[in-house]
Amino acid sequence: MIKIAIIAGLGVLAAAASAQETLPSTWRDPDTRCVYLKVRDTLSLRYRRDGTPDCASVQQDSTDASITRGDLRDLTQQITRSIEELRRDVGAVRREMEHARNELENIRRETRQPPAQ
Fold first, then answer.
1. In this structure, how many other beta carbons lie within 10 angstroms of the beta carbon of residue 60?
2. pLDDT tens across 23-41, in order?
3. Closest of 43, 39, 74, 45 to residue 57, by C-alpha
4. Distance CA 98, CA 101 (A)
């Protein structure tokens, strides 16, 4: 009986997983020339990889989108500067925390009563 329940459960899970894997069909609006994804009774506008709608009226960027060595050098310099700024900020916080800890220790020493004799 338990084996039948396990097999039935696995069958239901397999059916649900295979139903999710079906790719949505596409439909192009003849008026706007936009492509839509059709999932059951729902239409959703399809977008290109660059985030623009997949419509004939939307111009695609025809420039070369590759990253040059100069771009990489500039990005690397920006990242390096950002890391150095972060290190300085962390160092300043660390110094402030050390100062606060020293002040707290001084207050504790001052408020301690001498041991009774």
1. 10
2. 778 888 888 888 998 887 8
3. 45
4. 5
